[in-house]
Amino acid sequence: MSALYNIGTATKQTINKFRISTGRAEAIKGLSIKIDPKTYEIIVPEDEQEELDDMTELSELAEIMPDNSPRFLLLAYPMTNKDGIKQTPLVLLYWKPSTVVSQEWKMMYAGALEMVRNECGTYKLVEVSSGLEDDSDVDELIEQIESSK
Amino acid sequence: MSSVLSIFKLVKAPVYSHCFSQDKSLLAITCENTCLVYRLPPANSVTSSTTPQLVATLANHDKTVTAVDISVHGRIVTCSQDRNAYVWEPLSDGSYKPTLVLLRINRAATCVSWAPSGYKFAVGSSARIIAVCYYEQENNWWVSKHIKKPIKSTVQCLAWHSNGVVLASGGTDGYLRLFSGFIKGLDSKEAVANSPWGAKFPFGALVREYYHGAYIEDVQWRSAIEKVAFVSHEGSLNVVDSQDQLQSVNAPDGLPFNSLCWVSDAEILCAGFSCHPVLFAADATGAWAFARDLDKAGGAAPAPVANEDLDESEDANSGFGISALRKFKQLDLKGKVSTDAQESAHENTITQLKPYVEEQGRVTAVSASGLDGKVVLYRL
Protein backbone atom coordinates (compact mmCIF):
# COMPACT_ATOMS: atom_id res chain seq x y z
CA MET A 1 0.00 0.00 0.00
CA SER A 2 1.26 3.47 -0.75
CA ALA A 3 2.61 5.21 2.30
CA LEU A 4 1.58 8.60 0.96
CA TYR A 5 -2.18 8.45 1.54
CA ASN A 6 -3.92 7.05 4.56
CA ILE A 7 -7.51 6.27 5.31
CA GLY A 8 -8.59 6.81 8.86
CA THR A 9 -10.68 4.12 10.56
CA ALA A 10 -13.58 6.56 10.88
CA THR A 11 -13.63 7.03 7.12
CA LYS A 12 -13.48 3.28 6.55
CA GLN A 13 -16.44 2.84 8.86
CA THR A 14 -18.43 5.54 7.06
CA ILE A 15 -17.77 3.87 3.73
CA ASN A 16 -18.80 0.47 5.06
CA LYS A 17 -21.94 1.86 6.61
CA PHE A 18 -22.83 3.50 3.31
CA ARG A 19 -22.34 0.28 1.36
CA ILE A 20 -24.57 -1.67 3.70
CA SER A 21 -27.30 0.89 4.18
CA THR A 22 -27.85 1.55 0.49
CA GLY A 23 -28.27 -2.07 -0.49
CA ARG A 24 -32.02 -1.68 -0.93
CA ALA A 25 -32.21 2.10 -1.49
CA GLU A 26 -34.97 3.51 -3.69
CA ALA A 27 -33.31 6.83 -4.54
CA ILE A 28 -29.81 7.74 -5.69
CA LYS A 29 -27.45 8.07 -2.76
CA GLY A 30 -23.95 9.43 -2.86
CA LEU A 31 -20.96 9.53 -0.55
CA SER A 32 -18.34 12.15 -1.24
CA ILE A 33 -14.71 11.31 -0.60
CA LYS A 34 -12.01 13.93 -0.67
CA ILE A 35 -8.30 14.10 -0.02
CA ASP A 36 -7.08 16.73 2.39
CA PRO A 37 -4.46 18.67 0.41
CA LYS A 38 -2.20 19.18 3.38
CA THR A 39 -2.20 15.86 5.22
CA TYR A 40 -3.02 13.60 2.24
CA GLU A 41 -5.65 11.96 4.39
CA ILE A 42 -8.72 10.52 2.75
CA ILE A 43 -11.83 11.90 4.45
CA VAL A 44 -15.52 12.45 3.96
CA PRO A 45 -16.32 16.19 3.82
CA GLU A 46 -19.27 17.03 6.07
CA ASP A 47 -20.77 20.03 4.27
CA GLU A 48 -20.80 18.40 0.86
CA GLN A 49 -22.24 15.25 2.39
CA GLU A 50 -25.22 17.17 3.75
CA GLU A 51 -26.01 18.56 0.31
CA LEU A 52 -25.55 15.15 -1.24
CA ASP A 53 -28.07 13.66 1.16
CA ASP A 54 -30.64 16.04 -0.32
CA MET A 55 -29.80 15.12 -3.90
CA THR A 56 -32.53 13.49 -5.92
CA GLU A 57 -31.05 13.46 -9.43
CA LEU A 58 -27.67 13.11 -11.06
CA SER A 59 -28.01 16.52 -12.72
CA GLU A 60 -27.81 18.15 -9.29
CA LEU A 61 -24.29 16.81 -8.93
CA ALA A 62 -23.02 19.68 -11.05
CA GLU A 63 -24.13 22.15 -8.41
CA ILE A 64 -23.06 20.21 -5.31
CA MET A 65 -19.65 19.05 -6.46
CA PRO A 66 -16.85 21.61 -6.41
CA ASP A 67 -15.65 22.77 -9.81
CA ASN A 68 -12.10 23.51 -8.82
CA SER A 69 -11.18 20.25 -7.14
CA PRO A 70 -11.52 16.57 -8.03
CA ARG A 71 -13.54 14.21 -5.83
CA PHE A 72 -14.36 10.54 -5.52
CA LEU A 73 -18.05 9.85 -5.27
CA LEU A 74 -19.34 6.49 -4.13
CA LEU A 75 -22.74 6.25 -5.77
CA ALA A 76 -25.57 3.84 -5.06
CA TYR A 77 -27.68 3.94 -8.22
CA PRO A 78 -30.96 2.04 -8.13
CA MET A 79 -31.89 0.66 -11.53
CA THR A 80 -33.76 -2.15 -13.19
CA ASN A 81 -31.44 -4.14 -15.40
CA LYS A 82 -32.49 -5.77 -18.65
CA ASP A 83 -33.64 -8.94 -16.94
CA GLY A 84 -36.11 -6.92 -14.94
CA ILE A 85 -34.33 -7.36 -11.63
CA LYS A 86 -34.14 -4.33 -9.37
CA GLN A 87 -30.60 -3.64 -8.26
CA THR A 88 -28.69 -0.90 -6.51
CA PRO A 89 -25.13 -1.37 -7.63
CA LEU A 90 -22.33 0.67 -6.15
CA VAL A 91 -20.41 2.77 -8.65
CA LEU A 92 -17.31 4.81 -7.96
CA LEU A 93 -17.45 8.15 -9.76
CA TYR A 94 -14.15 9.92 -10.35
CA TRP A 95 -15.25 13.59 -10.48
CA LYS A 96 -12.60 15.44 -12.50
CA PRO A 97 -14.11 18.52 -14.21
CA SER A 98 -12.11 20.53 -16.74
CA THR A 99 -12.36 23.58 -14.50
CA VAL A 100 -9.80 22.07 -12.09
CA VAL A 101 -6.70 24.17 -12.50
CA SER A 102 -4.25 22.59 -10.11
CA GLN A 103 -2.25 19.81 -11.77
CA GLU A 104 -0.97 18.93 -8.32
CA TRP A 105 -4.46 18.09 -7.13
CA LYS A 106 -5.22 16.08 -10.23
CA MET A 107 -2.13 13.96 -9.66
CA MET A 108 -2.90 13.63 -5.95
CA TYR A 109 -6.33 12.17 -6.68
CA ALA A 110 -5.07 10.00 -9.51
CA GLY A 111 -2.51 8.45 -7.19
CA ALA A 112 -5.14 7.64 -4.56
CA LEU A 113 -7.62 6.19 -7.04
CA GLU A 114 -6.59 2.55 -6.66
CA MET A 115 -6.56 2.76 -2.87
CA VAL A 116 -10.04 4.27 -2.70
CA ARG A 117 -11.29 1.75 -5.23
CA ASN A 118 -10.06 -1.14 -3.08
CA GLU A 119 -11.54 0.35 0.04
CA CYS A 120 -14.96 0.87 -1.53
CA GLY A 121 -14.96 -2.56 -3.08
CA THR A 122 -16.69 -1.42 -6.23
CA TYR A 123 -16.08 -3.03 -9.57
CA LYS A 124 -17.30 -0.16 -11.70
CA LEU A 125 -15.45 3.13 -12.15
CA VAL A 126 -16.83 6.01 -14.20
CA GLU A 127 -14.78 9.11 -14.88
CA VAL A 128 -16.70 12.37 -15.12
CA SER A 129 -14.56 15.01 -16.83
CA SER A 130 -17.25 17.27 -18.23
CA GLY A 131 -18.34 18.86 -14.98
CA LEU A 132 -21.88 17.99 -16.07
CA GLU A 133 -22.30 21.38 -17.73
CA ASP A 134 -24.71 20.10 -20.33
CA ASP A 135 -27.77 17.94 -20.20
CA SER A 136 -26.17 15.65 -22.75
CA ASP A 137 -23.30 15.10 -20.32
CA VAL A 138 -25.74 13.91 -17.66
CA ASP A 139 -27.38 11.55 -20.14
CA GLU A 140 -24.00 10.18 -21.11
CA LEU A 141 -23.16 9.60 -17.48
CA ILE A 142 -26.40 7.72 -16.86
CA GLU A 143 -25.71 5.58 -19.90
CA GLN A 144 -22.25 4.74 -18.65
CA ILE A 145 -23.54 3.79 -15.22
CA GLU A 146 -26.36 1.67 -16.57
CA SER A 147 -24.36 -0.23 -19.18
CA SER A 148 -24.05 -3.79 -18.01
CA LYS A 149 -21.11 -4.73 -15.84
CA MET B 1 -26.22 74.97 -27.35
CA SER B 2 -24.45 72.23 -29.26
CA SER B 3 -24.87 68.83 -27.74
CA VAL B 4 -21.26 67.90 -28.49
CA LEU B 5 -19.04 68.45 -25.45
CA SER B 6 -15.78 67.19 -26.88
CA ILE B 7 -14.40 65.15 -29.78
CA PHE B 8 -11.34 62.97 -29.22
CA LYS B 9 -9.72 61.87 -32.48
CA LEU B 10 -7.75 58.96 -31.06
CA VAL B 11 -6.79 56.40 -33.69
CA LYS B 12 -7.11 55.72 -37.40
CA ALA B 13 -8.82 52.37 -36.89
CA PRO B 14 -12.36 51.47 -35.80
CA VAL B 15 -12.98 51.57 -32.06
CA TYR B 16 -15.34 48.68 -31.33
CA SER B 17 -15.54 49.19 -27.61
CA HIS B 18 -14.50 51.72 -25.00
CA CYS B 19 -14.78 52.11 -21.28
CA PHE B 20 -14.05 54.65 -18.54
CA SER B 21 -12.63 53.89 -15.11
CA GLN B 22 -14.96 54.56 -12.23
CA ASP B 23 -13.67 58.08 -11.56
CA LYS B 24 -13.65 58.80 -15.34
CA SER B 25 -9.95 59.63 -15.28
CA LEU B 26 -8.95 56.76 -17.56
CA LEU B 27 -10.36 55.87 -20.95
CA ALA B 28 -9.66 52.47 -22.49
CA ILE B 29 -10.39 51.84 -26.16
CA THR B 30 -9.91 48.84 -28.39
CA CYS B 31 -7.73 49.38 -31.40
CA GLU B 32 -7.00 46.41 -33.65
CA ASN B 33 -4.97 43.92 -31.62
CA THR B 34 -4.34 46.19 -28.68
CA CYS B 35 -6.16 48.13 -26.05
CA LEU B 36 -5.07 51.75 -25.51
CA VAL B 37 -5.44 53.49 -22.16
CA TYR B 38 -5.64 57.28 -22.02
CA ARG B 39 -5.65 59.67 -19.11
CA LEU B 40 -8.30 62.41 -19.03
CA PRO B 41 -8.76 65.43 -16.80
CA PRO B 42 -11.72 65.24 -14.38
CA ALA B 43 -15.16 65.24 -16.00
CA ASN B 44 -16.08 68.78 -15.03
CA SER B 45 -12.97 70.27 -16.59
CA VAL B 46 -13.20 68.56 -19.98
CA THR B 47 -13.59 71.09 -22.80
CA SER B 48 -13.61 70.82 -26.55
CA SER B 49 -9.86 71.34 -26.60
CA THR B 50 -8.94 68.56 -24.17
CA THR B 51 -6.58 65.94 -25.55
CA PRO B 52 -6.35 62.60 -23.78
CA GLN B 53 -2.82 61.45 -22.92
CA LEU B 54 -1.85 57.89 -23.88
CA VAL B 55 -0.57 56.16 -20.73
CA ALA B 56 -0.52 52.47 -21.59
CA THR B 57 -0.73 50.13 -24.54
CA LEU B 58 -2.02 46.69 -23.62
CA ALA B 59 -0.76 44.40 -26.36
CA ASN B 60 -0.99 40.68 -25.80
CA HIS B 61 -3.75 39.55 -28.08
CA ASP B 62 -3.05 37.96 -31.45
CA LYS B 63 -6.26 39.06 -33.13
CA THR B 64 -8.68 41.99 -33.01
CA VAL B 65 -9.72 42.98 -29.52
CA THR B 66 -13.51 42.99 -29.53
CA ALA B 67 -14.38 44.37 -26.11
CA VAL B 68 -12.91 46.03 -23.04
CA ASP B 69 -14.32 46.71 -19.58
CA ILE B 70 -12.94 48.26 -16.40
CA SER B 71 -14.03 47.01 -12.97
CA VAL B 72 -14.78 49.13 -9.92
CA HIS B 73 -11.30 48.22 -8.62
CA GLY B 74 -9.61 49.44 -11.80
CA ARG B 75 -8.84 46.05 -13.33
CA ILE B 76 -9.17 45.99 -17.10
CA VAL B 77 -10.45 42.93 -18.94
CA THR B 78 -10.05 42.62 -22.68
CA CYS B 79 -11.38 39.85 -24.88
CA SER B 80 -10.52 39.17 -28.46
CA GLN B 81 -11.14 37.11 -31.55
CA ASP B 82 -8.17 34.96 -30.53
CA ARG B 83 -10.53 33.14 -28.08
CA ASN B 84 -8.75 34.52 -25.02
CA ALA B 85 -9.37 37.11 -22.38
CA TYR B 86 -6.72 38.94 -20.36
CA VAL B 87 -7.22 40.59 -16.99
CA TRP B 88 -4.86 43.56 -16.64
CA GLU B 89 -3.95 44.47 -13.09
CA PRO B 90 -2.82 48.09 -12.59
CA LEU B 91 0.60 48.34 -10.98
CA SER B 92 1.86 51.24 -8.92
CA ASP B 93 4.07 52.58 -11.73
CA GLY B 94 1.12 52.98 -14.07
CA SER B 95 1.74 49.92 -16.21
CA TYR B 96 -0.47 46.86 -16.31
CA LYS B 97 0.29 43.22 -15.62
CA PRO B 98 -1.65 40.77 -17.81
CA THR B 99 -3.10 37.49 -16.59
CA LEU B 100 -4.43 35.07 -19.17
CA VAL B 101 -7.90 33.69 -18.57
CA LEU B 102 -8.56 30.36 -20.28
CA LEU B 103 -12.09 30.67 -21.53
CA ARG B 104 -12.18 27.19 -23.08
CA ILE B 105 -14.11 28.40 -26.11
CA ASN B 106 -13.35 27.49 -29.69
CA ARG B 107 -14.61 30.66 -31.37
CA ALA B 108 -14.05 34.39 -30.97
CA ALA B 109 -15.06 36.23 -27.81
CA THR B 110 -17.44 39.09 -28.64
CA CYS B 111 -18.27 41.00 -25.48
CA VAL B 112 -17.21 41.24 -21.85
CA SER B 113 -18.75 42.74 -18.73
CA TRP B 114 -17.53 42.92 -15.11
CA ALA B 115 -20.08 42.12 -12.44
CA PRO B 116 -20.84 45.12 -10.18
CA SER B 117 -18.74 43.58 -7.37
CA GLY B 118 -15.67 43.45 -9.60
CA TYR B 119 -14.78 39.85 -8.65
CA LYS B 120 -16.17 38.07 -11.68
CA PHE B 121 -16.89 38.85 -15.29
CA ALA B 122 -18.86 37.31 -18.11
CA VAL B 123 -17.63 36.87 -21.68
CA GLY B 124 -19.94 36.24 -24.61
CA SER B 125 -18.65 34.37 -27.62
CA SER B 126 -19.44 33.11 -31.09
CA ALA B 127 -19.11 29.60 -29.67
CA ARG B 128 -22.68 29.84 -28.34
CA ILE B 129 -21.29 29.97 -24.82
CA ILE B 130 -21.21 32.55 -22.06
CA ALA B 131 -18.12 32.07 -19.89
CA VAL B 132 -18.44 33.43 -16.35
CA CYS B 133 -14.95 33.80 -14.90
CA TYR B 134 -13.93 34.25 -11.29
CA TYR B 135 -10.63 34.24 -9.44
CA GLU B 136 -9.66 31.10 -7.54
CA GLN B 137 -7.72 32.24 -4.49
CA GLU B 138 -6.31 28.79 -3.67
CA ASN B 139 -4.90 28.19 -7.12
CA ASN B 140 -4.06 31.77 -8.08
CA TRP B 141 -5.93 31.34 -11.34
CA TRP B 142 -9.06 32.52 -13.12
CA VAL B 143 -11.60 29.73 -13.60
CA SER B 144 -14.28 29.94 -16.28
CA LYS B 145 -17.66 28.26 -16.00
CA HIS B 146 -19.84 27.88 -19.07
CA ILE B 147 -23.46 28.67 -19.69
CA LYS B 148 -24.44 26.75 -22.80
CA LYS B 149 -28.11 25.86 -22.79
CA PRO B 150 -30.23 26.96 -24.61
CA ILE B 151 -28.06 29.43 -26.53
CA LYS B 152 -28.12 28.57 -30.20
CA SER B 153 -25.97 31.26 -31.78
CA THR B 154 -23.40 34.00 -31.19
CA VAL B 155 -23.83 36.00 -27.98
CA GLN B 156 -23.44 39.69 -28.86
CA CYS B 157 -24.13 41.55 -25.65
CA LEU B 158 -24.15 40.95 -21.90
CA ALA B 159 -25.31 43.00 -18.93
CA TRP B 160 -25.23 42.23 -15.20
CA HIS B 161 -28.08 43.26 -12.93
CA SER B 162 -26.94 45.30 -9.94
CA ASN B 163 -27.48 42.26 -7.68
CA GLY B 164 -24.55 40.63 -9.47
CA VAL B 165 -26.40 37.39 -10.13
CA VAL B 166 -28.87 37.88 -12.97
CA LEU B 167 -27.12 38.20 -16.32
CA ALA B 168 -28.96 39.42 -19.41
CA SER B 169 -27.68 38.28 -22.79
CA GLY B 170 -28.74 38.86 -26.36
CA GLY B 171 -27.42 37.42 -29.55
CA THR B 172 -27.94 36.50 -33.13
CA ASP B 173 -30.49 33.80 -32.39
CA GLY B 174 -33.02 36.59 -31.72
CA TYR B 175 -33.59 35.76 -28.06
CA LEU B 176 -33.10 37.96 -25.03
CA ARG B 177 -32.27 35.65 -22.14
CA LEU B 178 -31.77 36.20 -18.45
CA PHE B 179 -29.43 33.70 -16.82
CA SER B 180 -28.21 33.12 -13.32
CA GLY B 181 -24.51 33.78 -12.90
CA PHE B 182 -24.52 32.75 -9.25
CA ILE B 183 -21.07 31.53 -8.15
CA LYS B 184 -20.90 29.55 -4.92
CA GLY B 185 -18.51 31.28 -2.56
CA LEU B 186 -18.66 34.63 -4.34
CA ASP B 187 -22.34 35.51 -4.27
CA SER B 188 -24.73 35.27 -1.39
CA LYS B 189 -28.32 34.11 -1.58
CA GLU B 190 -29.43 37.37 0.09
CA ALA B 191 -28.62 39.31 -3.08
CA VAL B 192 -31.51 37.68 -4.93
CA ALA B 193 -33.81 37.10 -1.96
CA ASN B 194 -36.39 39.75 -2.87
CA SER B 195 -35.89 39.86 -6.57
CA PRO B 196 -39.02 39.85 -8.76
CA TRP B 197 -37.14 37.73 -11.27
CA GLY B 198 -36.97 34.73 -8.96
CA ALA B 199 -35.44 33.64 -5.68
CA LYS B 200 -33.33 30.58 -6.16
CA PHE B 201 -31.44 29.57 -9.22
CA PRO B 202 -28.27 27.56 -9.61
CA PHE B 203 -25.52 28.69 -11.93
CA GLY B 204 -26.54 28.68 -15.57
CA ALA B 205 -30.27 28.41 -14.96
CA LEU B 206 -32.47 30.25 -17.45
CA VAL B 207 -34.52 32.83 -15.55
CA ARG B 208 -36.44 34.38 -18.47
CA GLU B 209 -36.45 34.11 -22.22
CA TYR B 210 -38.01 36.51 -24.74
CA TYR B 211 -38.08 35.80 -28.44
CA HIS B 212 -37.60 38.89 -30.55
CA GLY B 213 -36.55 37.64 -33.95
CA ALA B 214 -33.90 40.13 -35.04
CA TYR B 215 -30.30 40.14 -33.80
CA ILE B 216 -30.06 41.74 -30.37
CA GLU B 217 -27.22 44.28 -30.51
CA ASP B 218 -27.10 45.66 -26.98
CA VAL B 219 -28.85 45.12 -23.67
CA GLN B 220 -28.80 47.27 -20.52
CA TRP B 221 -30.42 47.00 -17.09
CA ARG B 222 -32.19 49.66 -15.09
CA SER B 223 -31.97 47.67 -11.88
CA ALA B 224 -33.76 50.18 -9.65
CA ILE B 225 -37.03 49.80 -11.55
CA GLU B 226 -36.34 46.17 -12.54
CA LYS B 227 -36.45 46.79 -16.26
CA VAL B 228 -34.16 45.73 -19.05
CA ALA B 229 -33.91 47.46 -22.43
CA PHE B 230 -32.44 46.12 -25.64
CA VAL B 231 -31.90 47.34 -29.18
CA SER B 232 -32.11 45.05 -32.15
CA HIS B 233 -31.08 44.94 -35.75
CA GLU B 234 -34.46 45.68 -37.34
CA GLY B 235 -34.22 49.18 -35.94
CA SER B 236 -36.15 49.06 -32.69
CA LEU B 237 -35.72 49.78 -28.99
CA ASN B 238 -37.53 47.42 -26.62
CA VAL B 239 -38.11 47.56 -22.86
CA VAL B 240 -39.15 44.56 -20.74
CA ASP B 241 -40.08 44.44 -17.09
CA SER B 242 -40.34 41.62 -14.57
CA GLN B 243 -44.01 41.05 -15.41
CA ASP B 244 -42.92 40.19 -18.98
CA GLN B 245 -44.53 43.33 -20.42
CA LEU B 246 -42.63 44.26 -23.56
CA GLN B 247 -42.79 47.66 -25.28
CA SER B 248 -41.28 48.48 -28.61
CA VAL B 249 -40.38 51.75 -30.40
CA ASN B 250 -38.92 52.07 -33.88
CA ALA B 251 -35.90 54.15 -34.78
CA PRO B 252 -36.99 57.42 -36.46
CA ASP B 253 -34.84 57.02 -39.56
CA GLY B 254 -35.07 53.27 -39.79
CA LEU B 255 -31.39 52.61 -39.20
CA PRO B 256 -30.68 50.10 -36.42
CA PHE B 257 -28.97 51.01 -33.18
CA ASN B 258 -25.78 49.40 -31.91
CA SER B 259 -25.83 50.56 -28.35
CA LEU B 260 -28.03 52.07 -25.68
CA CYS B 261 -27.70 53.86 -22.36
CA TRP B 262 -30.34 54.52 -19.69
CA VAL B 263 -30.37 58.26 -18.99
CA SER B 264 -33.00 58.15 -16.25
CA ASP B 265 -35.89 55.91 -15.27
CA ALA B 266 -37.93 57.26 -18.19
CA GLU B 267 -35.33 58.13 -20.79
CA ILE B 268 -33.06 56.00 -22.95
CA LEU B 269 -30.38 57.20 -25.35
CA CYS B 270 -29.56 54.96 -28.35
CA ALA B 271 -26.98 55.27 -31.10
CA GLY B 272 -25.93 53.26 -34.08
CA PHE B 273 -25.80 53.41 -37.85
CA SER B 274 -27.29 56.90 -38.11
CA CYS B 275 -24.07 58.27 -36.55
CA HIS B 276 -25.82 60.38 -33.92
CA PRO B 277 -27.52 59.59 -30.57
CA VAL B 278 -31.32 59.48 -30.41
CA LEU B 279 -33.27 60.05 -27.19
CA PHE B 280 -36.44 58.12 -26.35
CA ALA B 281 -38.69 58.95 -23.41
CA ALA B 282 -41.53 57.25 -21.59
CA ASP B 283 -44.59 59.31 -20.80
CA ALA B 284 -46.65 59.15 -17.62
CA THR B 285 -48.47 55.99 -18.72
CA GLY B 286 -45.17 54.27 -19.38
CA ALA B 287 -45.42 54.20 -23.19
CA TRP B 288 -42.07 54.77 -24.88
CA ALA B 289 -41.73 57.17 -27.84
CA PHE B 290 -39.11 59.12 -29.76
CA ALA B 291 -38.12 62.33 -27.97
CA ARG B 292 -35.33 64.06 -29.91
CA ASP B 293 -32.12 63.64 -31.92
CA LEU B 294 -28.75 64.80 -30.64
CA ASP B 295 -26.22 66.26 -33.03
CA LYS B 296 -28.05 65.22 -36.16
CA ALA B 297 -26.29 66.12 -39.42
CA GLY B 298 -27.78 68.83 -41.68
CA GLY B 299 -29.85 70.05 -38.77
CA ALA B 300 -29.43 73.69 -37.63
CA ALA B 301 -27.93 75.14 -40.82
CA PRO B 302 -29.29 78.58 -41.79
CA ALA B 303 -30.23 78.29 -45.49
CA PRO B 304 -28.45 80.93 -47.66
CA VAL B 305 -30.85 83.15 -49.68
CA ALA B 306 -29.80 81.81 -53.05
CA ASN B 307 -30.89 78.32 -52.11
CA GLU B 308 -34.41 79.14 -50.93
CA ASP B 309 -36.20 77.76 -53.95
CA LEU B 310 -34.22 74.56 -53.72
CA ASP B 311 -35.22 73.90 -50.12
CA GLU B 312 -38.59 72.20 -50.71
CA SER B 313 -37.20 69.51 -52.88
CA GLU B 314 -34.43 68.87 -50.45
CA ASP B 315 -36.46 68.70 -47.26
CA ALA B 316 -36.59 64.96 -47.49
CA ASN B 317 -32.83 64.78 -47.83
CA SER B 318 -31.94 66.98 -44.86
CA GLY B 319 -31.67 64.03 -42.52
CA PHE B 320 -28.53 62.69 -44.12
CA GLY B 321 -26.34 65.80 -44.15
CA ILE B 322 -25.37 67.38 -47.43
CA SER B 323 -27.02 65.27 -50.09
CA ALA B 324 -25.26 64.67 -53.37
CA LEU B 325 -27.88 66.71 -55.24
CA ARG B 326 -27.46 69.74 -53.02
CA LYS B 327 -23.70 69.42 -53.11
CA PHE B 328 -23.53 69.60 -56.91
CA LYS B 329 -26.18 72.34 -57.10
CA GLN B 330 -24.22 74.47 -54.67
CA LEU B 331 -20.99 73.74 -56.45
CA ASP B 332 -22.63 74.86 -59.67
CA LEU B 333 -24.20 77.94 -58.10
CA LYS B 334 -21.48 79.29 -55.90
CA GLY B 335 -18.35 77.59 -57.10
CA LYS B 336 -17.86 75.83 -53.79
CA VAL B 337 -19.71 73.44 -51.54
CA SER B 338 -21.51 75.22 -48.74
CA THR B 339 -20.13 74.23 -45.39
CA ASP B 340 -23.03 75.77 -43.50
CA ALA B 341 -24.85 72.51 -43.04
CA GLN B 342 -23.65 70.78 -39.90
CA GLU B 343 -21.94 67.45 -40.06
CA SER B 344 -22.52 65.16 -37.13
CA ALA B 345 -19.53 64.70 -34.83
CA HIS B 346 -19.19 61.04 -35.72
CA GLU B 347 -18.51 60.39 -39.39
CA ASN B 348 -19.20 56.71 -39.14
CA THR B 349 -21.31 54.27 -37.16
CA ILE B 350 -21.36 54.62 -33.37
CA THR B 351 -20.37 51.32 -31.77
CA GLN B 352 -20.84 51.89 -28.06
CA LEU B 353 -22.48 54.40 -25.73
CA LYS B 354 -21.41 54.75 -22.12
CA PRO B 355 -22.62 57.17 -19.40
CA TYR B 356 -19.99 59.82 -18.64
CA VAL B 357 -21.43 62.20 -16.07
CA GLU B 358 -24.26 61.21 -13.75
CA GLU B 359 -25.96 63.64 -11.38
CA GLN B 360 -28.74 62.67 -8.97
CA GLY B 361 -29.67 59.53 -10.84
CA ARG B 362 -29.79 61.24 -14.23
CA VAL B 363 -27.06 60.96 -16.84
CA THR B 364 -26.10 64.38 -18.17
CA ALA B 365 -23.24 63.43 -20.46
CA VAL B 366 -22.46 60.29 -22.49
CA SER B 367 -19.48 59.09 -24.46
CA ALA B 368 -19.71 57.33 -27.81
CA SER B 369 -17.02 55.42 -29.67
CA GLY B 370 -17.32 54.84 -33.39
CA LEU B 371 -15.87 53.14 -36.43
CA ASP B 372 -14.19 56.45 -37.37
CA GLY B 373 -11.70 56.06 -34.49
CA LYS B 374 -13.20 58.89 -32.47
CA VAL B 375 -14.68 59.05 -28.99
CA VAL B 376 -17.22 61.88 -28.73
CA LEU B 377 -18.69 63.25 -25.52
CA TYR B 378 -22.28 64.45 -25.83
CA ARG B 379 -24.14 66.69 -23.41
CA LEU B 380 -27.84 65.99 -22.72
UniProtKB/TrEMBL annotation, chain A:
Coiled coil (UniProt feature): none
The record's keywords, sorted A to Z, are:
Cytoplasm, Nucleus
Q: What is its main location?
A: cytoplasm
Note the superkingdom of the native organism: Eukaryota
**Molecular function terms in GO for this entry?**
actin binding; Arp2/3 complex binding
Q: Does the keyword Nucleus apply?
A: yes
Gene Ontology CC: actin cortical patch; nucleus
Q: Which Pfam families match?
A: Cofilin_ADF (PF00241)
Q: What is this protein called?
A: Aim7 protein
Automatic annotation (TrEMBL), chain B:
| This protein's UniProt keywords | Actin-binding, Cytoplasm, Cytoskeleton, Repeat, WD repeat
Q: Where in the cell is it found?
A: Cytoplasm, Cytoskeleton, Actin patch
Question: Where does the secretion signal sit in this chain?
Answer: none
GO CC terms, sorted: actin cortical patch; Arp2/3 protein complex
What family is this protein classified in? Answer: Belongs to the WD repeat ARPC1 family.
Q: Mind listing the GO molecular function terms for this protein?
A: actin filament binding
| Its biological purpose | Functions as component of the Arp2/3 complex which is involved in regulation of actin polymerization and together with an activating nucleation-promoting factor (NPF) mediates the formation of branched actin networks.
Q: Can the keyword Oxidoreductase be found in this entry's annotation?
A: no
Q: Per its record, how is this protein called by name?
A: Actin-related protein 2/3 complex subunit
Please name the source species.
Answer: Maudiozyma humilis (Sour dough yeast)
- Give the Pfam families listed for this entry: WD40 (PF00400)
Q: Which SUPFAM superfamilies match?
A: WD40 repeat-like
